[in-house]
């Protein structure tokens, strides 16, 4: 149901789950599916690629569980992949939402979180960006922290920020933070 002449849907919201390698980013993103509104009846997908989710007749959610840092992508490659996802969605949807894993610091060919948010904002003009830092990590070790100047710059970009506990409990309990993340995409 894309609009006539529209090349890609409007970027509505972006959720960045942030932590260093093995912090539990992809696990947190997958656990959003405990929320039945995402269409899997609460079943958490195990596949590395997650199929695009219909949130309403006019909006969708694309989820990427691997960080571009870990894939050794450039910022341009990362944005091109998002553009491609948006283009694929344009026949059905006119509002696009995106969730992905990121690392906080520049690594391989990708810049740091602040640079990514600044350039993402300029390129896609989303209505909202939310950054979720994982602390502690899934293994219970301390997670990522941002220096105050980075926090201030993200705030100047109107980026919402929160820190969530990524520690995997023993025995494993239903992961409640998945619903917390999924709620960002509730438009009811």
Please describe what this structure looks like.
This protein has helices at residues 25-30, 75-89, 113-124, 148-156, 177-182, and strands spanning 10-18, 53-56, 59-64, 95-102, 128-134, 160-164. It is of the alpha/beta class and 188 residues long. It starts with 9 loop residues before the first strand and ends in a 6-residue tail after the last helix.
Keywords:
Rossmann fold, 6-stranded mixed beta sheet, 5 helices, 21% strand
Q: What gap, in angstroms, lies between the N and C termini?
A: 20 Å
Q: Output the structural class.
A: alpha/beta
The geometry reads as globular
**Per CATH, which architecture?**
3-Layer(aba) Sandwich
Can you give the helix content as a percent range?
25-40%
Q: Quote the CATH topology.
A: Rossmann fold
Order of helices and strands: EHEEHEHEHEH
Low-confidence stretches: none
Number of helices: 5
Q: How many separate domains make up the residues?
A: 1
Rg, Å, rounded:
16 Å
Task: Kindly report the oligomeric state of this protein.
Answer: single chain
Largest sheet: 6 strands, mixed
- Major sheet strand order: 2-3-4-1-5-6
């Amino acid at each position: 149901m894309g609009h006539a002449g529209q090349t890609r849907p409007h970027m509505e919201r972006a959720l960045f789950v942030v932590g260093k390698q093995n912090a539990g980013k992809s696990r947190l993103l997958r656990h959003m599916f405990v929320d039945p509104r995402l269409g899997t009846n609460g079943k958490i997908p195990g596949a590395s690629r997650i199929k695009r989710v219909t949130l309403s007749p006019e909006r969708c959610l694309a989820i990427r569980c691997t960080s571009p840092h870990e894939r050794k992508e450039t910022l341009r490659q990362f944005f091109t992949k998002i553009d491609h996802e948006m283009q694929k969605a344009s026949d059905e949807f006119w509002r696009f939402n995106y969730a992905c894993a990121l690392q906080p610091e520049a690594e391989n060919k990708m810049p740091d979180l602040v640079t990514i948010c600044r350039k993402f904002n300029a390129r896609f003009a989303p209505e909202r960006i939310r950054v979720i830092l994982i602390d502690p990590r899934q293994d219970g070790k301390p997670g990522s922290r941002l220096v105050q100047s980075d926090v201030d710059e993200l705030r100047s970009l109107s980026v919402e920020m929160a820190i969530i506990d990524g520690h995997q409990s023993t025995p494993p309990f239903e992961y409640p933070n998945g619903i917390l993340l999924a709620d960002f995409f509730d438009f009811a």
